[in-house]
Q: What sequence folds into this?
C-alpha cells in the first residue's frame, strides 16, 4: 500500500469547510472556520534525521515563542 | 457540534486541537477516531504545538529499528525491523508560518511543503522523487516503504479519482 500524504492536503481544506457548514449560516463560528480555511496554509514537515526524535519540534517551539511575544506587543500597543 | 461547541476565536479552535492531542476529546473534523498509540508518544509535544497555533491534523514520531512485531510501531512480516522519520501536517496562519520557516530553513535535515486552499505550493525540496517516511527491512525481501511524501501526487490524485469513479 502506498499512502501519499499529499493526497490528504486536498481533503484537509474540504473537511474544514464541511465542519463550518454544520453551523448556522453566517453565524460567528461558521465565519471563523471559513475564514481560517481561506487564509491559513497547510504544511507538511518531515525531519529526515530519524535518530533525533525531538529535533522536529524545535523550530515550532522557537517560532511559537516569538509569535506569542509579537502578539502581546501588538495587544499592548492597541491598549487592550 | 456537540463535541466541539461553538468556537468564536482562533484560540477556541486551537484549544479543541490541543485537547484532542491530550486525549480529552475523541474526535476532530479531521479525525473520527482518537490519536493512535504511536502518536501518544509525542502527545505532549503535539498539545503544546496546537496551543501555540499549529493545528496538527496528521503526525508520526521517528522510529529507529523497532522490531516488526512491536506492539506500537510494528507492521509487516515477522523478524523484520521498521523505521520512521518524524513528520507533522498542520494548518497555520501566514504570520506564524513565516516565523516558522526562518527556523526550519536553518535545519538542513528538514523538508517541507506549504500549500493553501487555491493549491499554490511552496517547498524546499529540489528532488522530483518521493521521500520515504516509513520503511521496513525484512528477511529475504527488498526494502518495503508503505508511506512516502510526494508533491507531484497532488495533481495525480485528481486523475486517479476520476479513473475510479
A:
Amino acid at each position: 500500500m502506498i499512502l501519499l500524504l499529499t493526497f490528504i492536503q486536498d481533503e484537509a481544506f474540504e473537511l474544514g469547510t464541511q465542519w463550518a457548514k454544520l453551523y448556522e449560516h453566517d453565524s460567528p463560528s461558521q465565519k471563523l472556520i471559513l475564514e481560517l480555511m481561506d487564509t491559513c496554509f497547510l504544511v507538511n514537515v518531515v525531519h529526515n534525521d530519524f535518530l533525533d526524535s525531538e529535533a522536529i519540534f524545535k523550530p515550532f517551539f522557537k517560532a511559537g515563542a516569538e509569535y506569542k511575544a509579537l502578539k502581546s506587543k501588538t495587544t499592548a500597543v492597541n491598549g487592550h | 457540534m456537540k463535541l466541539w461547541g461553538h468556537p468564536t476565536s482562533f484560540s477556541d479552535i486551537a484549544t479543541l486541537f490541543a485537547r484532542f492531542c491530550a486525549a480529552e476529546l475523541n474526535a476532530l473534523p479531521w479525525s473520527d477516531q482518537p490519536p493512535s498509540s504511536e502518536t501518544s508518544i509525542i502527545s505532549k509535544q503535539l498539545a503544546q504545538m496546537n496551543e501555540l497555533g499549529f493545528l496538527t491534523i496528521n503526525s508520526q514520531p521517528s522510529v529507529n529499528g523497532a522490531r516488526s512485531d512491536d506492539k506500537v510501531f510494528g507492521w509487516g512480516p515477522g523478524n523484520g525491523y521498521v523505521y520512521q522519520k518524524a513528520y507533522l501536517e498542520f494548518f497555520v496562519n501566514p504570520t506564524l508560518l513565516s516565523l516558522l520557516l526562518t527556523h526550519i530553513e536553518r535545519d538542513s535535515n528538514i523538508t517541507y511543503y506549504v500549500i493553501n486552499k487555491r493549491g499554490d505550493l511552496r517547498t524546499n525540496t529540489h528532488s522530483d522523487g518521493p521521500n520515504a517516511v516509513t520503511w521496513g527491512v525484512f528477511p529475504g525481501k527488498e526494502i518495503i516503504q508503505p508511506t512516502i511524501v510526494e508533491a507531484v501526487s497532488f495533481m495525480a490524485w485528481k486523475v486517479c479519482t476520476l479513473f475510479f469513479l
User: Anything to note?
Assistant: The helical segments of chain B are 10-21, 43-52, 94-104, 153-164. Chain B touches chain A through 67 residues (CB under 8 Å). The CA atoms of residues 114 and 124 of chain B lie 9 Å apart. Strands of chain B lie at 55-60, 63-67, 81-84, 86-92, 110-115, 121-123, 131-137, 144-149.
